[in-house]
Every structure is written in C-alpha cells, then in structure tokens.
C-alpha cells in the first residue's frame, strides 16, 4: 500500500501582512481538501516570519505573527535571523510562549540561562499509519549579532552530525527545515544522503518544482508568501521506503482572501496604532527629508550616531529616512514609519586610505541611486551619504556628476593613510559589496538590540523638541 503525505509551508514571510489573508485562504482550502480525502498533512514555516518593518510586529515584538500561525494551525516552525537577531534576548526567549505549534532549531543555544521551553532540537512526527518523520531545524549562524544578545548558533554541520544519525535509527523519513540559504542547502544535500527533504529559506530563492541533489529533494517558495510551498511524499508501506518526492510552489495571487483573517489583521493594526501612537516629541516646524540633498535631520542623526558610539567619525545614507515629519506631536509610530529598517549601528575600523576610498565611493552617482533591496534595508534607494566628524569638499564633472576633491577630519586634520580610525555607520554596509572596505574590515562592533530608529527618536527628543 502507498500513502501520500502532504506538507505545506511558508518561508521568509517578513511580516507581509497584506498577503496573509491570501495565505490563509490557500491553506484553509488545502486543509479542507486533505481532511476530505483523509490524507495526513502538516504546515511548516522556515523562518523570518517576523519582521519589525511592519508596525504590527513592531508593536507586539512578533507575538501577533505567532497568533496568526496559531489561527491557521501551523504544526512546526524554525527560526530565521529576523526572529533571532532583531529581538532582544528576553523578547525572543518569550516569543513562542503561546505558540500552539512546536519550534525546532537544532543549532540555537541560550548563553546565560536555561533554554526556553519552546526550543526543540529535533521533532518526530508519526502518522496514524505509523510512518515516523524526523525533523531537524537550522538557522544561519550570524554570531557577531547572536553573541551580543546572549545567544549562540553552533555550526550547522556539527548539529547535523549530532542529530541525523540519531534520527536515521529511529525514523523513516528525515526532513531539514533550513534557514541557511540555497548554497548551504545544496552542500548539505551532497554531504548527507540520509536527509530526504530540505525545505529552505533565507536567500529568498524560488524553486517552483524543487531540485534533487544526491536523492535529496530541495525546495523553497521565494519571499513574502507570494508563493506557498507544497511537498508530497509517497510512502510505500510494503517496502518501507519513499517511492516518490514532489515539490511545488504555487502562486497565490488569485486566491480569494480569507475574510476572518482580514478582520483579525484589522484589529491587530488598530491595537498597534494605539500602542505606537503615544507622542514622544512635539515639533514646532516640519522636518524635511531628501534622499539626494543634505538635510538637518540626517546631519543631527549622524552626529548622534558618532557621539553614541564614541567613534572617530560616522556616516549614514539619506535613503534611511523615507518620509517627512509634520509639525506637531510626533509618535514612535511616526519614527517607525519613516525609519522601518531592522538596521543596527555598527563601528568598523578602517585605515585612512580605506576611509578616503569609502568617502569617494559614497559620492558616486551609481552608489547614491542604487535601488537597494535586502541587508536589512527596507527603503528605495541608498541616497546621499552624510558624514559626522569629516568635512568633504566636492566639485562636479562636465556631465554634472559630483566627485570628491578632498576629505579631512573636522578642524582640517588630514587622514593618515596607515592610521586606523573607528567609523560608525549602518550595519547594512558590512554585508555584500556596497562598500567593500567596510565589509572587509576585520573589526566590526555591532550594537544590539538598538536600531537606528531608536537613535532617531533620541535625536528628535534631544535636538528638535520644542523648548
């Protein structure tokens, strides 16, 4: 006898609540179909469901996300870096206290106290017919952040070595919930032939019908839940083995929205607006925000960053601020609205010649107009760079493009090419190749759990409040 096992999953939802009623509509219909046919099914999430870019997640520190997954009957989730490093230790420790589902993350460890009650290293699911499914969960080891929050993420291969062999002896099927990214998923498939299925996330890759490496099926459903993942495993009871593995990612753009979920989200938004709506400062005049011009607010915020981190200098890009602020009472909700990014302050060490190259790069047209997506940035373009502690002299080429003539520290002090300086900035620039000198710096000190918007709130209170 053959039996089909159904798994539905989401990954990298990033609090895209506008899409959630369609997610609910799809999953409720899928659940109804599976129940009608008597098929075993489960619903998983692969991490980064929470993203504090949305005011509902900001106001509830992710507990609203957990409630929404409860409402849809999720069975099992793992955590992503947005759950892991954008919440304080205490907020993550209690994030899943009211979860009706299990949380499996095999490589996350609490440093300074006992593990939270919800944290499972592995999970074993058994069907009514006796098929045992072992589940491992892994999250990406961003320990430069985790260690500052009194968590630690152990190496993924160490965790797999510990748990795959154990599950091999006690289960029929092994599934990995991987918030590691596509390249790591592929390497794991090459190394661990006993893993039957890897459901992935983190790098927002979309595998419409999966990918097979070394008999392991790899799948993922993009980002923001524009697609829902489905896996169908066919188990042969007579031969005691899997005989077929199928993966699909379904575009749910035309799926009808679930009305009950829409109502729940409306109520959540009302509560969030009320919680974030307490005034933090009163402005006599509106504050201008411009992405390609120097502004007072960005200058003051950059100065705050320099003073708060006690760095030699600081730099922030104008694209961090998304909108103006009107005169009158300003709430934390307003601060979140114009600076929604889960971006932390960081101080890096650069030699004088590297710092000069960073300044020059920041004034290029291509850099300022880059439409950035990811690395914590939730805006549109990088925008013009503002500096604190540094004076930059620029001129213009015949084609109208700006370039750096000279850069010195305040007081006219020149950069010393081989001297090391501390530079405060947004942690966005420590990733990728946006500013290679910053990304390559061997010394990076991140500040957690503070976001740049916390410094923005302090700047408004200290520099713009009506006296």
TrEMBL record:
Superkingdom of origin: Bacteria
Occurrences of domain Calcineurin-like phosphoesterase (ranges): 8-205
Keywords, alphabetical: Hydrolase, Nucleotide-binding, Signal
InterPro entries xrefs: 5'-Nucleotdase_C, 5'-Nucleotdase_C_sf, 5_nucleotidase/apyrase, Calcineurin-like_PHP, Metallo-depent_PP-like, Pesterase_YunD
GO molecular function, one term: nucleotide binding
Residue ranges of domain 5'-Nucleotidase C-terminal in the record: 289-428
CDD domains in alphabetical order: MPP_UshA_N_like (cd00845)
Keyword Signal set for record: yes
Bilayer-spanning residue ranges: none
PANTHER family linked: 5'-NUCLEOTIDASE, 5'-NUCLEOTIDASE-RELATED
Family assignment from sequence similarity: Belongs to the 5'-nucleotidase family.
Protein's UniProt name: Bifunctional metallophosphatase/5'-nucleotidase
Organism: Oceanobacillus chungangensis
Taxonomic classification: Bacteria, Bacillati, Bacillota, Bacilli, Bacillales
